[in-house]
Amino acid sequence: SGVRAAPSRQPPARGSDRGAEAPRQKGNAVREAFDLLTKGRSGVATVVKVLELVGESKRSWQDAAESAVREAAQTVDHITGVEVYNMTAEVEDGRLSSYKANVKVAFAVDPARR
Predict the structure, then answer these.
(1) What gap in Å lies between CA 63 and CA 4, rounded to an integer?
(2) Structure pTM?
(3) 106 beta partners
(4) Residue 23: alpha-carbon gap to chain centroid
(5) What region does 27 belong to: left with phi over 0, alpha with psi -120 to 50, or beta?
């Protein structure tokens, strides 16, 4: 018949090269940043680091995420992407009063500083 089994979705074996890759999820800013940094470069290793931060705002989740990126940008160069992976809020008197965004900020390490 014309039906095939889907390929196995097993995690990569320990120590395999695939385990070092960023997750391949649609909309994953960290993966997209890695792809952008390595696009068109053959034989050149680009080191991408990821920081996890929590931004906070009294106005919105977007402002909380932007706050985290602004804070990171004070000490980190070459920020290429951000992934918001969790949003929470505090509630006072039945209303949202404070917004928090957990983010992953991806940046390229300057080759001269490695």
Answers:
(1) 47
(2) 0.62
(3) 50, 81
(4) 10
(5) left
CA dist., res. 36 & res. 45, Å (int): 13
| 3-state SS assignment for residue 90 | strand
Q: How far apart are CA 33 and CA 41, in angstroms?
A: 14
Q: Is 74 exposed, middle or buried (0-12, 13-18, 19+ CB in 10 A)?
A: exposed
Q: Quickly count: other Cβ atoms within 10 Å of residue 18's Cβ.
A: 8
Sign of CA dihedral 12, 16, 17, 21: positive
User: How far from each other are the two terminal CA atoms of the chain, in whole angstroms?
Assistant: 55
Chunked mean pLDDT (size 10), the chain, 114 residues: 40 42 53 65 74 97 97 93 96 97 92 70
Residue 101, pLDDT score:
97
